[in-house]
UniProtKB/TrEMBL annotation, chain B:
<keyword id="KW-1003">Cell membrane</keyword>
<feature type="transmembrane region" description="Helical">
    <location>
        <begin position="179"/>
        <end position="205"/>
    </location>
</feature>
<feature type="transmembrane region" description="Helical">
    <location>
        <begin position="51"/>
        <end position="78"/>
    </location>
</feature>
<dbReference type="InterPro" id="IPR052157">
    <property type="entry name" value="BCAA_transport_permease"/>
</dbReference>
<comment type="similarity">
    <text>Belongs to the binding-protein-dependent transport system permease family. LivHM subfamily.</text>
</comment>
<feature type="transmembrane region" description="Helical">
    <location>
        <begin position="237"/>
        <end position="258"/>
    </location>
</feature>
<dbReference type="GO" id="GO:0005886">
    <property type="term" value="C:plasma membrane"/>
</dbReference>
<feature type="transmembrane region" description="Helical">
    <location>
        <begin position="90"/>
        <end position="109"/>
    </location>
</feature>
<dbReference type="Pfam" id="PF02653">
    <property type="entry name" value="BPD_transp_2"/>
</dbReference>
<keyword id="KW-0813">Transport</keyword>
<feature type="transmembrane region" description="Helical">
    <location>
        <begin position="129"/>
        <end position="158"/>
    </location>
</feature>
<keyword id="KW-0029">Amino-acid transport</keyword>
<feature type="transmembrane region" description="Helical">
    <location>
        <begin position="264"/>
        <end position="283"/>
    </location>
</feature>
<keyword id="KW-0812">Transmembrane</keyword>
<keyword id="KW-0472">Membrane</keyword>
<dbReference type="GO" id="GO:0022857">
    <property type="term" value="F:transmembrane transporter activity"/>
</dbReference>
<dbReference type="InterPro" id="IPR001851">
    <property type="entry name" value="ABC_transp_permease"/>
</dbReference>
Length: 240, 290
């Protein structure tokens, strides 16, 4: 694979819930090392797209290629194995399990000897998780749960990290923290990031490139900076 | 006083069986939200298969693993052929499927085995041990000890192994489990196999005391379910406490009031408890999953 070949390539993806189609042929790509943001309003199809990429949402047409392999019909666990990890909307941590078990389960498919070392790295990144590692994860605050969900996803050593609304329901100071962590992960862990956000300003600020999705279709694309300064984007999503 | 002790011993023995059935309910319910009313049939399959294999001349210590294995295969088939194809169906539909499966298994057992009552020889003889004036059958120690070993192994499995934690993770959040790469369909199938093995072991251990026949499953499922509800559906500790409590209630009711009403007494007390504590002893406050 050449370095400018896309890591993730989605072509004409269609998906829906029952007879209601939520994605009407979405095409986009994420290249290695990039941070790409997908912004759009409520119900535009952002979460559906991420679910389809992770293989927990049936796809009716189109394809998902990852690292040059067709994953359109692959199981969710095969995609994790291939290197796709998702931090789902609303964290979705394993509340009754301990924080450490949550992280350990992030490495569920790994068989290598470096799991313990990676656990320490996550603890370095999020010291609060280490302090409380024996406690049930459900006792963490919203922001801490978001850290845990990110740490859990990183434990699979993903090539591509999918983040669904990481800022949702967090206080502004925590939103800044979460985005700082995403930027740090890209620097230190060399992970490619595909980020879905309603908080368009924060997402586009850290993104190399962005896509705007409207009612299940890609409406606009460009660099993060271009989209941030685009009149229509500013009006529709940035509220200025 | 010796009477009381005697009733307690027999209550705990049969209660240990209810506890194992309730644990089987709990494991499957947690992993899949399915209330498996075919759980009692695993107990029947364990006992009946052992009886018929030993009758064919196979020594008991080979017959027992074979019977457990047979129950595990049937548990797997139950999941693959009856539960998995109905994935996404409502809880009521799934319950009806398991009731259908239990009727099917009972009918099958009637054909494969027979309609007679059978017993297994006690593992360590029939000479009762006197404890504080109560005569305790050696087989009671097998039942209680076997149940204790199973509970200890389950504790180790769920707390110390990655697969066990994957089952707990699937129970806690199915979507997140799939997103970390857990094959949740395998986990649910595995929980059926595990529950089948536990049920079969219970059926084998208790067969020398209570006898076994093709149709013991239905009442055991009902008692085990009542025990799980009493303890708090989904809580393993609750299943054990609930099972022992139902067994004790039955034995004390039969001893002090009337053995004719022993089933009724147990159910009346359970109803009374659930009026006061709808979630059972260890139940969650909310009942959203029902």
């Amino acid at each position: 694979m050449r370095s400018d070949d896309p890591l993730l390539k989605i072509e004409g993806l269609r998906s829906g819930y029952g007879r209601i189609e939520a994605l009407h042929g979405v095409s986009l790509e994420v290249r290695p090392g990039e941070v790409v943001a997908l912004v759009g309003g409520n119900g535009a199809g952002k979460t559906t797209l991420l679910r389809a990429i992770s293989g927990v949402q049936p796809v009716t047409a189109g394809g998902v290629r990852f690292s040059g392999t067709d994953l359109t019909r692959a199981s969710a666990h095969a995609r994790v194995k291939a290197g796709i990890a998702q931090v789902p909307e609303g964290r979705q941590i394993f509340s009754p399990l301990s924080i450490e078990d949550n992280l350990r389960l992030g490495a569920y498919l790994r068989k290598d000897a470096e799991i313990a070392a990676d656990l320490e790295r996550v603890y370095d990144l999020f010291p609060v998780l280490k302090e409380r590692r024996r406690n049930p994860a459900g006792g963490l605050s919203g922001g801490q749960q978001q850290m845990l969900a990110i740490g859990r996803a990183m434990m699979s050593r993903p090539k591509l990290l999918l983040l669904d609304e990481p800022s949702m329901g967090l206080a502004p100071v925590l939103v800044d923290q979460v985005f700082a962590i995403i930027a740090r992960l890209r620097e230190e862990e060399a992970v490619t990031v595909f980020l879905v956000e309603q908080n368009a300003f924060a997402a586009l600020s850290i993104a190399d490139r962005g896509y705007v999705i409207e009612t299940g279709e890609i409406a606009m694309t460009g660099s993060g900076r271009e989209l941030l300064t685009d009149e229509r984007v500013r009006e529709a999503y940035l509220g200025v | 006083m010796p009477d009381f002790l005697q009733f307690c011993v027999s209550g705990l023995t049969v209660g240990a069986v209810y506890a194992l059935v309730a644990l089987g309910f709990t494991i499957i319910y947690n992993a899949s939200d399915v209330v498996n009313f075919a759980q009692g049939e695993f107990v029947m399959i364990g006992g009946m298969t052992t009886v018929f294999i030993t009758a064919a001349g196979v020594p008991l210590h080979f017959a027992i693993p074979a019977a457990i294995l047979a129950a595990m295969v049937i548990g797997l088939l139950l999941h693959r052929l009856a539960i998995e194809p109905a994935r996404g169906a409502s809880a009521v539909t799934l319950i009806i499927i398991t009731i259908g499966a239990s009727i099917f298994l009972r009918g099958g057992a009637q054909i494969v085995f027979d309609k007679q009552f059978h017993s297994l020889p006690a593992f360590s003889g029939d000479t009762p041990v006197m404890i504080g004036g109560a005569a305790v059958l050696p087989q009671s120690f097998w039942v209680l000890g076997g149940a204790a070993v199973i509970v200890a192994l389950l504790w180790f499995f769920f707390n110390r192994t990655l697969l066990g934690k994957a089952v707990l993770a699937t129970a806690a959040n199915r979507l997140a489990a799939r997103l970390v790469g857990i094959n949740t369909s395998f986990v649910v199938g595995f929980s059926f196999v595990l529950s089948a093995a536990i049920g079969a072991i219970a059926g084998i251990l208790v067969a020398p005391i209570t006898l076994t026949s093709y149709d013991i499953g239905a009442l055991l499922a009902l008692k085990g379910f009542a025990a799980a509800m009493l303890g708090g559906m989904g809580n393993p500790l609750g299943a054990i406490v609930g099972g022992l409590a139902v067994g004790l209630l039955e034995a004390l009711g039969a001893g002090y009031i009337s053995s004719t009403y022993k089933d009724a007494i147990a159910f009346i007390v359970i109803l009374a408890v659930l009026f006061v504590l709808p979630g059972g002893f260890f139940g969650r406050a909310s009942t959203e999953r029902v």
